[in-house]
Design a protein that fits this description.
By secondary structure, the chain is an alpha+beta fold. It folds into two domains: about 60 residues, Single Sheet (N-terminal domain of TfIIb); about 140 residues, Nucleoside Triphosphate Pyrophosphohydrolase (Alpha-Beta Complex), CATH 3.90.79.10. Helix content is about 15%, strand content about 30%. It binds zinc ion (ZN).
């Protein structure tokens, strides 16, 4: 696989970003036969007329969870690029072989060392965990842009305190408990998360 950011940038179909713009220029050569005739359909399909290779750079599933504690909503400070230093929700990419809830609970364990729910067998959405919104996002990482479908959950954990959490070294720069009325959406790392928090505030803090 040849990755050439300088050659790829002019062919970009996504909005330019500091990270480059992909996936159009992700491959300059067919990764199977080496032909330069590799074609991109402008969305997510690569094909090679020479050897017949077809590759779909499919949307990846990812999760975020609004955890509401007695001290506020739980946000993580991103410890690495993209958007290092900005706020994010606990969550992340769903791994191959995982269901979306399983992936979320694994991310919670990894990122904050906390597992809220005991009964998670069978791929069911456990009681108390609610899917409230889903938005697309683009996640640039090391020269490749991944299109994601972000699923946003919410969960009440009234007794949760900062001291209950064990943050993942390197990945997480810190944790902040922020009351909904003090939240500044511009401090959030990603557009999909801003849209989700806007929806959450509408749904869960609007006076009855
Ligand atoms: Zn080929």
């Amino acid at each position: 696989m040849a990755i050439n950011r300088a050659d790829a940038t002019p062919l970009c179909t996504l909005a330019p970003s500091p990270y480059g713009c992909y996936p159009r220029g992700m491959w300059n050569y067919c990764p199977a036969c080496g032909s330069r005739e590799i074609r991109f359909d402008g969305s997510h399909k690569f094909s090679c007329p020479g050897c017949g290779l077809v590759y779909y750079h499919n949307t990846a599933a990812a999760t975020g969870c609004v955890i509401r504690s007695g001290q506020g909503l739980v946000f993580l400070v991103r410890g690495k690029e993209p958007a290092k230093g900005k706020l994010d929700l606990p969550g992340g990419f769903v791994d191959p072989g995982e269901g979306v809830v399983e992936g979320l609970l694994r991310e919670l364990r990894e990122e904050i060392g906390w597992e809220p729910l005991a009964d998670t067998a069978g791929g069911r959405v456990p009681k108390g965990l609610r899917l409230f919104a889903s938005f697309p996002n683009v996640y640039p990482y090391r020269g490749i842009t991944y299109n994601t479908c972000d699923l946003f959950f919410t969960l009440d954990a009234p007794g949760l305190r900062e001291g209950d959490l064990r943050l993942q070294a390197g990945e997480i720069g810190g944790v902040r408990f922020i009351r909904p009325e003090d939240l500044k959406l511009e401090e959030l790392a990603f557009d999909s998360t801003r849209r989700a928090l806007r929806a959450w505030l509408e749904m869960y803090t609007r006076p009855a």
